[in-house]
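Run log, item B.
One chain of 423 residues. Sequence copied directly from the ordering sheet:
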Amino acid sequence: MRDTAENPQTEGAEPVAGARPAQRGHAAGLALRSGGAALQRRFRAGELGSFPVVMVLATVWIIFQSLNANFLSPRNLSNISVDIVGTGMIAVGIVFVLLLGELDLSVGSISGLAAAIFAVLNVNNGVPEWLALVAAVLAGTATGAVQGYSCAKTRVPAFVLTLAGLLTWNGLMLAVLGTSGTVNLDENGLVAELTNYYFTNDAVAYVLAAVCAGAVFTISYLDRRRRVAAAMPHRSMWHIGVHTGGLAVIAFVSAYVLNRFQGLPLALLIFLVVVAGLDVVLRHTRYGRQVYALGGGVEAARRASLNVTGIRTAVLAVSGTMAAIGGLFLASRITSVSQNSGSGLLLLNAIAAAVIGGTSLFGGRGTTWSAVLGMLVIQSISSGMAITDTPTAVQFVITGGVLFAAVVIDALARRSQEAHGRA
């Protein structure tokens, strides 16, 4: 059997159907060694994937569990799964912007503005919740689109233009809230239920786990079949099976843990659906390929006749939309909106989550799942610090250290990719 370096159409050899047990065992062993060799080549080429952040997350969990046995309790893990949603939604939008090699500094202010618009429309003016919610999200989309179009037309770096947006939208939020400064939401209303509702039926969590595993296998299999038909490099069925099996184990264990407390949180379900949907958009649609292409080089994208203005406008619109949705989830968590909404560490945590999760600052590399992993790291550190009564200053130092490490790894991976001609 030839090595995968000699046969680029597979990333791992497949056991031969109908072979004898000894032959199948030998083939499986060769597939394992071949897959390990392919993994080593990817690491040497700077294709680290999510491996570093998974190792960091495992280390954080082990350390805090050793300090306090309640850290990995169903209650605490359930709380973490809900706490990551608000900022995580914003971080998902940041991923889109980072894929272009840009940075959106206005997402915190947009999230606060959207929450303020919802609160004032619903609470102060009696507008139905669903209509106020739609208006708030559309406001986020509009602000992002305005910034994206302006950025594309003027060719001003996005971080400069969105810095102006940070101040503008924050001022508009204060104007919307008026002199009262704080608006309390209905604790039994639609928005409040976003982070307070749980599916108490155990079957819901297990069904979701099964659906996720099935979807991953189906998407991977269809992608493999398409690549095989086009004579392109593809993953072996053994590799797909191992990958799907690993994710299935994680999904069912997570479902079991969540069911030991109050069940599957509605907020987590919505978050996963949004992340998965946007991941499909990025990796399996023409628009997503254009985003990655633009992140690989603006001039090359123009010469390829891509609509640079349209793509930039759409990406910033997505960022603004996700910021608005995140702001509503953050407001739901505390059932109020105030002049401090969207301020503080929100912006830094959202950017840090995307970068820590593996999205490159140089553009062209990352997925929406990067935001999920990054938020898990940040929120786990925050929760661990709270449960062990560690000073907040230490939390900042640790989070900053993890972010610094992620940036260094990203830079080294970029350099390695350039050395191998992949950047």
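Observations after the first pass:
- The beta strands are 182-184, 198-199, 264-265, 336-338.
- The longest strand covers residues 182-184.
Flagged for discussion on Thursday.
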